[in-house]
Amino acid sequence: MASNSIGQVFRVTTFGESHGPVIGAVVDGCPAGLPLSVEAIQQDLNRRRPGQSALTSPRNEADRVQIVSGIFEGRTTGAPIALLLANEDIRSADYNHLQNTYRPSHADYTYETKYGLRDHRGGGRSSARATAALVAAGGVAKQLLATADIRIAAFVTQVGSESVSLPLATDPPQLDAWLAVSEANAIRCPDAEAADRMIALVEEARSAGDTLGGIITAVIDPCPPALGEPLFGKLQADLAHAMLCINAVHGFDYGSGFAGASRYGSEHNDVFFNDQGTIRTRTNYSGGIQGGITNGMPVYFRVAFKPVATLMQVQTSVDREGEPVTLEGRGRHDPCVLPRAVPIVEAAAAIVLADHLLRSRMARI
Amino acid sequence: MASNSIGQVFRVTTFGESHGPVIGAVVDGCPAGLPLSVEAIQQDLNRRRPGQSALTSPRNEADRVQIVSGIFEGRTTGAPIALLLANEDIRSADYNHLQNTYRPSHADYTYETKYGLRDHRGGGRSSARATAALVAAGGVAKQLLATADIRIAAFVTQVGSESVSLPLATDPPQLDAWLAVSEANAIRCPDAEAADRMIALVEEARSAGDTLGGIITAVIDPCPPALGEPLFGKLQADLAHAMLCINAVHGFDYGSGFAGASRYGSEHNDVFFNDQGTIRTRTNYSGGIQGGITNGMPVYFRVAFKPVATLMQVQTSVDREGEPVTLEGRGRHDPCVLPRAVPIVEAAAAIVLADHLLRSRMARI
Amino acid sequence: MASNSIGQVFRVTTFGESHGPVIGAVVDGCPAGLPLSVEAIQQDLNRRRPGQSALTSPRNEADRVQIVSGIFEGRTTGAPIALLLANEDIRSADYNHLQNTYRPSHADYTYETKYGLRDHRGGGRSSARATAALVAAGGVAKQLLATADIRIAAFVTQVGSESVSLPLATDPPQLDAWLAVSEANAIRCPDAEAADRMIALVEEARSAGDTLGGIITAVIDPCPPALGEPLFGKLQADLAHAMLCINAVHGFDYGSGFAGASRYGSEHNDVFFNDQGTIRTRTNYSGGIQGGITNGMPVYFRVAFKPVATLMQVQTSVDREGEPVTLEGRGRHDPCVLPRAVPIVEAAAAIVLADHLLRSRMARI
Amino acid sequence: MASNSIGQVFRVTTFGESHGPVIGAVVDGCPAGLPLSVEAIQQDLNRRRPGQSALTSPRNEADRVQIVSGIFEGRTTGAPIALLLANEDIRSADYNHLQNTYRPSHADYTYETKYGLRDHRGGGRSSARATAALVAAGGVAKQLLATADIRIAAFVTQVGSESVSLPLATDPPQLDAWLAVSEANAIRCPDAEAADRMIALVEEARSAGDTLGGIITAVIDPCPPALGEPLFGKLQADLAHAMLCINAVHGFDYGSGFAGASRYGSEHNDVFFNDQGTIRTRTNYSGGIQGGITNGMPVYFRVAFKPVATLMQVQTSVDREGEPVTLEGRGRHDPCVLPRAVPIVEAAAAIVLADHLLRSRMARI
Question: Which of C76, C230, C361 sits opposite A362 (nearest CB)?
């Protein structure tokens, strides 16, 4: 059934496969009157696109976004905004040998089992290529959020065995400082030294034909109070849903997260105090969300990515008939998707926040 | 806006507050012809209700479920199934002192900020009392799933600093053996020795007026292939959403989860093989889900709970006017919700699975 | 699949069968802070309930509504509002002879064909009894609309061959004057003389064991501009949907409606003019809606009801095995549902309007 | 809020404005494995496109549909199907004089009031141009329906004062015979003589710079039983909603419709009988739907269109400042949209039916 839309009132529908002529997104529910910068959307697409650094797949996608509806004289009209991205550097022949083979830890087997057939070229609809459409749609959401002074930023905080810790439970986020570092290195880590270690780790894995996973930490700051809807529209639940929709994501936590599970209530509770007229909490183990609703403190969460499944190594598997086969890695792939996933996480979060920003207008008579 | 429903085609809507006359759930979309055992639903409610062991709140709720629609001669008719639970042991006066106070790490402040007023009695709609309605609805889902040979079981695998490890990535689940242990101890841990340590830890925390969090691990086994819908109806995304809707949950991961983030692709990929005519994987780091769709292997995931926010200790906070106040713990509360949360996790998962079981009928012409 | 909810952001879910213990509605998405009068809801239920006049079924339902959630100290809290109505005067035995029989022009055959079984007692879920829950929910919607100065009133304008014409395309509605008449006669017609003729017609039909259909005309005045959403949330489309959900309704038109199909554009266009600073139209063939959005003029529409299918006459049909059977009318039924349907039409319209009133808050940044 | 999608499980989202570069539709939820003929979709677009006969607007749109996703080797894959249509013969300058003017009975005033700005070129999103995307999506739905032996056909049965009557309540539909006539004349009327009179009427209106409305009657035959979902997914309700979403539609009825309102129950009830093993009804005043669910008899309904609002005559109106203005008809417009609306009605109905065909798979365990 229809499952390619996300959001209730600010709703994004994406379409398109890795090796078709075009992918795209329809953003329905964006309020009218928003001045929309195509260039800002393009910048996020550039942060996601392959070929941007030595760490990423050399597939060459200019990823030039075209907006074909919903804008008049530079502003949104309230009509659906359709964004198109041409697929340019397609080499479908790269995938011919996979037509009957189920790649390990890919969606080949499950798509074929569910649908009875599949578009094997580049993974078809299951390809991470589809996240480009999400980033484009997220670019609209980000600009809507900016009108409410909401800012989202994401950072790579773990790659394989290398990690950095951001003291978000106890200190205010330093988004500008962190971004100055993270957007200046190829792995998008907010700690320059850790970035070097992570990059070295990725280079090493690539040389071995191997791949790495990692963790992205996202921060929403400033974030106004009163976003999120009990019981099944809790902000953290919609964020978790959005993050788990991203290819290769295996986990989500917010605030104290999994680490909070081992703490005592007496050390975990966030004490309210009156900060010169504003009610705030001294610590932020709640991650800015209480009862599913933001409390005005920074929102932050982590997203765990498994290592990329496509290896440049020999692997065994089975084909459609259940016969054993041997696979050799081919095509153009990333040894670690984390740096390219940063704008994807931001986009998915922005769509959730935009949805809840609009929903919050209906909370009171 | 309307946010108290979960599920697309098998949709559960809950209503009711902690200290109102009744709470309930409407299950809409359950297929006709399902023989429905009220007793089975009651058993899960009994596993969730307070007062069931020395570890839980002494609030006395019989939690007798009444089904008032959708059943005829013991079978579902296709009409919505409404389940009602009376609130019996209400002591609203226990909460009078909280009328103007924002309890730390509760929803008091956010509800009031969002809605401009709140029902302070027992947390109102934000109370974990609402999860009883979810368990009742989940009981319907479980019985639907049983017709497709789908079984869900959850276990407490961490309480504070005590934890057990279930080898789900490498070995077949032992649901019967684990349940035999977990349902026989007060903490619902599948390892009897760890259970003893966890219980001791909870008793100790209770004595100190303190509270504990922990982790629940859930397993779906057997689980048929082809459940889940790309791109935004991925099974793991809907599971994550459902889990993060549960009170006190701060994290979700599935398969290798957060631990997978530090592994290499070469050690993480699940190799397909032909197991006497059935295609299976040798390991199950994918957690039974690939590309958002089940592959026939067991599905498993973890849910992280923060420690309970209500302490039997003195805490500071502010009131509605921003004035500092001192809070003393009162009322009847759990030092650790994990054992009671086991049927809640199962119920939430069952609702998601029931929804996807029905959705999977529309995948092919 | 789940289909017992109406509305997107102000969403009403109903449940319950004719001969179960209780029917009810959950209103999810009502903004917080609305002072809610249970008595006002009760008044609409009284207008719908059987036994209110000589024209209606003598089934005796007090239809006392109980609100069990979502209200605190007389005001809505933003939590779902559950409304319960006990079924009191149940005589299920009246229906035993219908267990295997398909009544003509009822839902017996289709429910059984779709679901494989049915609750034959009083029509089960297909009974017009379910509209009581709709009226209760509509009572909440009406009170929300009143805060935006939106008023809905409905009138019986045709019963069988007797009809009256309201000059809504050319003149301002006279709601107060019309209601003064319509609510004072048993058929709820705004023209006292026509009411007498209609009542006589109904009495005559009842004596013959026969039944009558008719038309209800509804007016929304005042109605603010900017309600309704292109393309598939057009106000007239959502009104049509809501009306066609009411039992026995076979048609809907708005503005010039079916009559407009035979007119020329030159006589049908509504000319804008500046009415002392307000832009209005000289005529209102558009029925207050243009491009799916209200223009500030009164909204009006008609709803056609087929004659009641339950006759106090002998009829032929078939049973479950396809054998011919003879049916005698029994039970307690209305010869004409129009007067009782007036509050149902108002309630359904109110729910649609409440939904769009909230949605309209998201139109602009 | 997001309102440009129709359908719950087979969901169509459209986008694009009259004078943008492209319009399109995304069909999400079409089952995998459907062989899809682009040519069949194109044929319906050809029936809708302008310039097809002397009666229609001379705007020259080839309306060549391009499918850019969701198809692999000629069959649907389960992924969303995106259909694009270029806007070719755009003459935006034709609309410059309307920039500040509210055309009578158009959406100019309401769009501007709702959104604060509007794309005045050709009506922007409110243009009937958007129905081309609906027809394209409906072409997918029709092909899905064909696999279940469901056929939809629509006919012009009234234009202005000229009408024909189809005996659908009493006799089996003659779709082949009717289509042979209707698709062979410019007005798409199933009665050749009436067609001549209608065509003459349209020519006359056009000469006078005037326009005409009319009625389209649609038939679904064969139509299987068990489609439609109580209470708020009744088939007639979803059909009504879909029809009222079409530009210029002011009314919908099904079965006996408005005419049924003046009949007695004794003459209106459809008597069941056993037709050689199949349960059927002797008459079909129910229009093939009882209790919201199809009964296996032909479904039929009527759709009323108001006369086209764009006249080639001088009209008065006001501008944005409320100043009186005079409008002269310009641009390329139809004097009567009925013949072009026939495939639109079919497409909208097909989308509703496709949705319910899939939903019906979930009715029973």
Answer: C361
Task: Provide, as residue numbers in chain C, all residues whose Cβ is less than 8 Å from the Cβ of B20.
Answer: 68-69
Name the neighbours of D, counting chains with at least 3 Cβ pairs within 8 A. A, B, C
The total of structural domains in chain A comes to: 1
| CB count in 10 Å sphere of residue A248 | 21
Pairwise CB contact (< 8 Å): C109 & D290: yes
- What pLDDT, in 10s, does the model give residues B72-93? 999 999 999 999 999 987 676 7
DSSP-based three-state secondary structure for D201: helix
Chains that touch C (3 or more CB pairs under 8 A): A, B, D
Scanning every residue of chain A, which has its alpha carbon at the shortest distance from the alpha carbon of B313? A266
Residues 222-281 of D with CB under 8 A from C: 225-226, 228-234, 236-245, 250-258, 260-266, 268-274, 277, 279, 281
CB–CB of B68 and C7 under 8 A? no
* Interface check B9 vs D, CB under 8 A: yes
Structural domain for B309, as ranges: 5-362
Q: What is the pLDDT of residue C85?
A: 97
Q: Could you tell me what percent of chain C has a pLDDT over 70?
A: 98
Interface contact D9, partner C, CB < 8 A? yes
Instruction: Tell whether the model's pLDDT for residue B137 goes beyond 90.
Output: yes
Residue environment code for D5-37, b if the CB has 16+ CB neighbours within 10 A, otherwise e: bbbbbbbbbbbbbbbbbbbbbbbbbbbbbbebe
Measured CA to CA, the distance from residue B26 to residue D248 in angstroms comes to 39
End-to-end CA distance of chain A: 35
Q: Contacts by D267-270 with C-beta closer than 8 Å and gap 24+?
A: D268/C105, D268/C213, D268/C306, D268/C307, D269/C104, D269/C105, D269/C309, D269/C311, D269/C315, D270/C104, D270/C105, D270/D297
DSSP state of D264: B
pLDDT band (50, 70, 90) for residue A99: confident
Joined tokens for residue A213: 């996973």
Q: Measured between alpha carbons, how far is residue D101 from residues C134, D94, D104, D130 in Å?
A: 42, 13, 9, 22
How high is the pLDDT of residue C150? Answer: 98
CATH of the domain at A56: 3.60.150.10
Per-residue pLDDT of A325-344, as tens digits, reads 999 877 668 899 999 999 99
